Each structure stands twice: as C-alpha cells, then as structure tokens.
Amino acid sequence: MxxxxxxxxxxxYKSTEWNEQNSYTFVAETAQNLLDFxxxxxxxLNISSQPTENSATSYKLSSSGFVNGSxxxxxxxxxxxxxKTSRDIDLHNVVSGYKMMEPLRDPNDDLYKxxxxxxxxxxxxxxxxxxRLFLPGTALEAMLIRRLSPLSQLVVTCVSDSQLKNxxxxxxxxxxxxxxxxxxFIYSTHESLFGIRSIFNFGPSAAxxxxxxxxxxxxxxxxxxxxxxxxxxxxxGFSTAVRYTSQSAYTGTPITMTLLANxxxxxxxxTYALRTTTASAFASRFDFNVYSYLSDLSIGCEIWRKLRFSxxxxxxxxxxNDANDFSSVFKASTSISNQSVRLLWEGRFHGxxxxxxxxxxxxxxxxxxxxxxxxxxQFSS
Length: 381
Prior knowledge:
Elements lengths: L3 H12 L13 H7 L6 E11 L2 E9 L3 E10 L32 H4 L3 E2 L2 E2 L5 E9 L4 E10 L2 E9 L7 E10 L3 E8 L4 E10 L14 E14 L4 E14 L6 E8 L4 E11 L2 E10 L5 E12 L5 H5 L9 E10 L4 E10 L2 E11 L6 E12 L1
C-alpha cells in the first residue's frame, strides 16, 4: 500500500496533469505490482493529515526488532483539492495493482497552455517540496519537483546519512514528456553517475488524449531503454524493454506483455498479465540468464472483494466499473526457484487502512520454511 506522502505526490501529478506512467521506470509496473508487491516490515503505525490544501504532514512509528520512526512534511504550490482521508479514499488510489492505460500527453500542451503578459510568460510553474527525518538518528531524505513547462519537469532527490559514502547523495532528473515519447536525463553525485532513459509509444492508443472520438478498443506498443555510466567506478549499465498493452472499453480482456533484457548481465525477463474481471488479475514472469542458465518462474494474482449493499444502496452501486465498490484486496505470489510464497491483504476497517502480509521462504540453514509477518496501519484526516 502506498504511503501517505506517495499518495500526495500522485495527487500533485494529477493536479498538474503529469503522467508518471509514461516513463521507462514503469515499463514493467503491472507485473511487478502483482508479483513483487511490498510486504509491511514488522509493525508500524502511520498518522497523517492535510492541514491546508497546500501542505501535508505524516508521522510514522514502527517496530521490527527495535523502535524507530519518522516525521515528514510536504508543501505544494498547486492546490491539492482531491486528497481524500483514509475513511473516504478509493482503495485503487493507494493499492498498486493492475495498471490500465492512461491517455498520452498532447505535445501541443506546451503551446496552448502558455500564458503571456507584456511579452513575458506568467503561467505557473508548480512546485512540490518534501522532507522526511528518520528517528532516532539524523538521517534525512528530501525531494523537490519543479514543473518547468507543460511538457517538462525537474525532480531533485537527496539523502543525508552519516553511514553512507560521502554522507549522502543528490540526484537530478530532468524529464521531458511529449506523449509519443518521454526522455529522462539523470545525474547522481553517488559514483558520479550519468544516465538517460527513454520510452517511445506506437499504435492507435498513442493518439492524442484530446482526440474527439476515442476508440472502442485500444492497444499500444512501447519500446524503451536505460543507459548509465558511473564515472567513479567506471561501471556502465544498459537495459532495454518492449511492452504491449491492449484493453477495450466494452469487451475483451485487458492484457500487458513485456520483454526486458540486460545484455551486459545476460538477463532476460518476460511477463504476461491479464485482468480477467474488474475484481481479479493474474500475472506470470519467466526469468533466464544466458550466462549461467539459471531460470525462475513467478506467478501472482490479486482478487478484490466488493462491499455488500442492501436495499436501495445495492441498486445505486451495481456498476462493476465503480471502483469505490471494493473494500479490500488479496494478493498472492510464488517463486519456483526461490521456493517462496508471499501473501498480502489490504483493506479498510473503521476508517483505518490496514496492510498485513506474510512471507514464507525456505531457510538456507534448514529445509523448513521461515515465516515473516508484517502489519501496517494508516490513518489520515
């Protein structure tokens, strides 16, 4: 389940009309959400609030062998009017599951969204500031998101910790999204790393979001790559991926297929995910290494549970497309070679968002399975 500040960041992207999915980083997001979903660590409690439409605060207390916590603050120059409390939020907005395609950006946004006055551009360049202090200790993380134009933004993240090399690192990421393609240029002070990520979209659904007549069915082919080089350690890296997605507004089964390759490491990964109904989705992934011949098969699923209504309420909420009808989700995944099973339940109980997970993996010291349990409770107002 997303943390409160991650949810606020998505609300900021929504209010500033930024499609974060059109990035190479999320090329295999659907399969990862069904196979590699995060499990809560130990026991933790998150209390968050939105004092104003421009700010948010979050406090976390957790215990996983020892007690720790964090304090986080966020400010947005854009009004965050659509932020919901834990009692009212649509679970699909905080649970990472099967991802449906979103309309791509119109490249003409940079022209018709410009505001000029007296020969100078005065259209707003929205800003988000975020900081988090970890307790006990002095570790700190921060993020700045600055919209430079309707098609571009700069994301700066930094970590300060005495236990890290050079006491921390700063990363700069310039993103340019023109719908049909998106480029990212990255520099990190950690190992003086330079990188570039790009994704290109093809197909009928790659048409502009402003198209007057949306198609009954849509498909999209995306191809991308990531290239980086660490100057300090003289270490290069390269990966490439192809993704095909297809969905229909009326009939048919939405599917997502990806093929990822890392030529330097000899690693190949193929995924297949489908949304069988509005309340269920399944995914599989096959990993193979051409150098070691090691392979692995992973299988996962998510099953949503609907709210039960009676009387007049049931008549008003019979539309399967109404995501607010769902009260919880159950996820399960297994890895053949790792001999592991992961189970997760996420839902709402009396206004609290609850995430509970169980991981079973065969211990290297014995033939028995070692269980690991976690519970996380979130409340926001």
